[in-house]
């Protein structure tokens, strides 16, 4: 395993599984939490998800960097990088700040912020799927 391709496939698949779980399970469940339990539920979610995000995103970024250096001429590398960067940038630029606003915001804006969060999460999921597709093409 001296090339990044199998490692990229592994981390891209883990990332896609994580994103699908958040998109289809975690955020819908969080949206169903009532106002009386919201602050506690969102704080618990944030505390629990942060280490998982680190475990998924750090290897993803590292292996994408490795692939860019080791396989720069392969189109599949750039497909994977484009998808991975879409997910990472959407997380850092939009999802994380939205979570911050959800922590401190009032109940009035919560549904609007949750809708935005779910929309950006769909973008992250698409990015993860594109990254995984690039990884599959790179291995093939």
TrEMBL record:
Keywords: Membrane, Transmembrane, Transmembrane helix
Protein's recorded name: DUF1772 domain-containing protein
Segments passing through the bilayer: 6-30, 51-69, 75-100
Domain of life, per lineage: Bacteria
Tagged with keyword Membrane: yes
Organism classification: Bacteria, Bacillati, Actinomycetota, Actinomycetes, Propionibacteriales
């Amino acid at each position: 395993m001296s090339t990044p391709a199998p490692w990229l496939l592994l981390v891209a698949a883990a990332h896609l599984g994580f994103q699908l779980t958040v998109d289809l399970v975690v955020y819908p469940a969080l949206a169903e939490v009532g106002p009386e339990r919201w602050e506690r539920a969102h704080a618990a979610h944030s505390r629990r998800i942060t280490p998982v995000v680190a475990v998924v995103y750090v290897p993803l970024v590292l292996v994408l960097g490795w692939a860019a250096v080791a396989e720069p001429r392969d189109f599949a590398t750039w497909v994977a990088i484009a998808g991975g960067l879409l997910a990472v940038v959407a997380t850092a630029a939009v999802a994380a700040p939205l979570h911050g606003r959800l922590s401190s915001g009032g109940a009035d804006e919560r549904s609007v912020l949750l809708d935005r969060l779910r929309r950006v999460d769909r973008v992250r999921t698409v990015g993860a799927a594109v990254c995984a597709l690039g990884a599959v093409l790179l291995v093939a």
